[in-house]
């Protein structure tokens, strides 16, 4: 039997029903998070729940739980489902109300969370993945982790059709991020990644990676970089909750570096794993 969380209660999945006029369903009017579970424990849960609060505040959704209470609720769902390795997905919508554009007065947010079992993508972490370049056609508040993911879906579909894992997006020749990951390049030993502003989601894995760089004395430049710099990079890697630090070995049909994951990427992967093990125990 599969259990989910519906408006704060653990219920059987088939008992969780969302109204057809829920604003998440009709408008994508809501926000979400995906948190990785290792050894039955959430990794960087506080950071994810803080970002959820920030996303909620930026679109005026009031989350009816304190952050600590929400964390306890998610822990109870994970324990209930006995998940050792996987993810917990949670979303809040603005609730259900007759379909009108202005925010409804007095509608209570709809809260859904569920778990999924999944191992670490060990093979790809070893071998690396392929990417394509695509124009970033999304809106100008990519810092909000909103349910409106159509631009991201269109980008990732193009990647899938090209036999690639991820689409690296650019605006006017400036690299922003992947469809569901952040992008960094390495040039001459320096990690270069887009600054955390409205053009990208400030990934939690990106932040863990940057913290590792600071600790390990790896030089970092948080600045806009061009498609030309991407194409001339020694190393390219993606960061994300389910992919950790993922090497890119081929971009737009051209080999990145030597065609194998580079030394800086490997170091970051190793240290990322150490961070996971510090919080969640041995992998
Ligand atoms: C557009 C986008 N950028 C970046 C990320 C990476 O964020 P995180 O490391 O918090 O998973 C995601 C994750 O889903 C994403 O959807």
From TrEMBL:
Entry keyword set: Aminotransferase, Pyridoxal phosphate, Transferase
EC code(s) of this entry: 2.6.1.21
Domain of life: Bacteria
Chemical reaction(s) catalysed: D-alanine + 2-oxoglutarate = D-glutamate + pyruvate
GO CC terms in record: cytosol
GO molecular function, one term: pyridoxal phosphate binding
InterPro entries named among the record's database cross-references: Aminotrans_IV (IPR001544), Aminotransferase-like (IPR036038), BCAT-like_C (IPR043132), BCAT-like_N (IPR043131), Class-IV_PLP-Dep_Aminotrnsfr (IPR050571), D_amino_transT (IPR005784)
GO terms under biological process: amino acid biosynthetic process; carboxylic acid biosynthetic process; D-amino acid metabolic process
Cofactor: pyridoxal 5'-phosphate
Keyword rRNA-binding attached: no
Subunit details: Homodimer.
PANTHER family named in the record: AMINO-ACID AMINOTRANSFERASE (PTHR42743), D-ALANINE AMINOTRANSFERASE (PTHR42743:SF10)
Similarity-based family: Belongs to the class-IV pyridoxal-phosphate-dependent aminotransferase family.
UniProt-recorded name of the protein: D-alanine aminotransferase
Annotated organism of origin: Mesobacillus campisalis
Taxonomic lineage from the root: Bacteria, Bacillati, Bacillota, Bacilli, Bacillales
């Amino acid at each position: 039997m599969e259990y989910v969380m519906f408006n704060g209660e653990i219920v059987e999945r088939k008992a969780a029903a969302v109204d057809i006029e829920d604003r998440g369903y009709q408008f994508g009017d809501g926000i979400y998070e995906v948190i990785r579970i290792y050894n039955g424990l959430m990794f960087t849960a506080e950071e994810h729940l803080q970002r959820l609060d920030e996303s909620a505040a930026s679109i005026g959704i009031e989350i009816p739980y304190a952050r600590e209470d929400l964390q306890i609720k998610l822990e109870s769902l994970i324990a209930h489902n006995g998940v050792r390795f996987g993810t917990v997905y949670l979303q809040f919508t603005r609730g259900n109300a007759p379909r009108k554009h202005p925010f409804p007065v007095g509608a209570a947010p709809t809260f859904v969370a569920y778990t999924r079992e999944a191992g670490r993508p060990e093979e790809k972490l070893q071998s690396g993945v392929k990417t394509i370049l695509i124009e970033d056609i999304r809106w100008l508040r990519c810092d909000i982790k909103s349910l409106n993911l159509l631009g991201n879906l269109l980008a990732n579909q193009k990647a899938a059709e090209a036999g690639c894992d991820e689409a690296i997006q650019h605006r006017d020749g400036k690299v922003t991020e992947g469809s569901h990951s952040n992008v960094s390049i390495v040039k001459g030993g320096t990690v270069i990644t887009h600054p955390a502003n409205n053009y990208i989601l400030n990934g939690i894995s990106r932040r863990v990676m940057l913290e590792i760089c600071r600790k390990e004395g790896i030089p970092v430049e948080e600045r806009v970089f061009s498609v030309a710099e991407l194409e001339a990079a020694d190393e390219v890697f993606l960061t994300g909750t389910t992919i950790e630090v993922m090497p890119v070995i081929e971009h737009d049909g051209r080999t990145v570096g030597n065609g194998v994951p580079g030394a800086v990427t490997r170091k970051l992967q190793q240290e990322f794993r150490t961070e996971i093990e510090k919080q969640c125990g041995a992998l």
